[in-house]
Amino acid sequence: MSAEPIVYLNGEYLAASQASVSLADWGLHGVAVTEMTRTFGQRCFRLDDHLDRLNASADQLGIAVDLLRDDWHKITKTVVNHHAALVGETGELMVNHVISAGLNSMNAAPNHSGPTIYVRTFPLQFSRWAAKYQKGQHLVVPEMRQIPAECLSPRIKSRNRLHWYLADRKAREIDADASALLLDLEGHLTETSAGNFFIVRENTILTPRSEVTLGGISRMVVRDIAQFLGVSYEEQNITLPEALSADEVFTSSTGYCVLPVTKIDGRPVGDGRPGAVYQHILETWNMMAGLDIAAQAVEQSVVESQ
After folding, report:
1. Section 230-234 average pLDDT
2. Residue 261 needs a FRET pair 20 to 30 A away by CA distance; which of 67, 178, 240, 302 works?
């Protein structure tokens, strides 16, 4: 067994250090779609939902993929199981599926055709958010706006992260501990670079419309949990003043699942502490995951620091 993670790349399993793509690959120009899936107990959570979105994104780019669902499952299991044996029983992984349009035909080798497909894994970095389950996260709304759906459909989960890179960089110039939360061109809040955005008002969860935000898998989980808890869940336009006056605010993302927001643009949200609806969602998510998500993050962040 390789002493390092393996990567699936175009039909082969390679040691991660030996895997590479051509400089002529369209993925280097952002013409690629991607998914990130996390494990709980080293088992992928909602893998089929992620694969559905991956294939739907590829379809919108006109990229034909000949892998069947069973193929994706076999590849993912092989790569995850190999890396899981390296990180120990308490470690968890992020699983990255990527499909690019393949080689640019102007530079392509004559024996290559079809997309570039790879699956890789890396350890979850719990220290990035372990403390935020209790103290909350900060968001900043920069001047940069969300790319309009008329220019790029938010239903495509793309590898092109340039505007998010710039937005987060600007946000951290204002607050070193913050992430960017973007407005659309009409002044409505959309999402962060890593997750979907929610506010709570009078025991109703409100989230921006699907037409302007990525249909997050974790967002689906929040919707399902809300239904289970009997909490109203609605999609609608949300303004910054509405978010600042909300009872509570939180975000969802594959890696951390759900985190409270306690400050936006330097101003406290609600009473400045994580709210009750967020707590109920996290507790229900714990049951689905079969573990205490926040406690695991704290424990593993200690391991990371050793």
Report:
1. 98
2. 302
Distance, CA of 208 to CA of 197 (rounded, Å): 7
Beta-carbon count within 10 A of 271 CB:
10
Classified as helix, coil or strand, 274 is coil
Q: Is 79 exposed, middle or buried (0-12, 13-18, 19+ CB in 10 A)?
A: buried
Burial class (CB in 10 A: 0-12, 13-18, 19+), 230: exposed
Angle at 58 (CA atoms; ends 188, 13), nearest 5 degrees: 125
Q: Report the 10 Å Cβ neighbour count for 27.
A: 22
Residue reference for tokens 């936006």: 264
Taking residue 291's Cβ as centre, other Cβ atoms within 10 Å add up to 14
Which residues fall within 8 angstroms of residue 114, CB to CB, at 6 or more apart?
A: 64, 66, 102
Which residue carries 């951290």 as its tokens? 172
Encode pLDDT of 133-188 as tens digits.
999 999 999 999 999 999 999 999 999 999 999 999 999 999 999 999 999 999 99
**Which one-letter amino acid corresponds to residue 88?**
G
Q: At what angle do helices 217-229 and 47-60 cross, to 10 degrees?
A: 130
With a CB cutoff of 8 Å and minimum separation 6, the contacts of 151 are none
Whole-model pTM?
0.95
Stretch (H or E) spanning 97? strand 93-100
- Rounded CA separation 120/188 (Å): 35
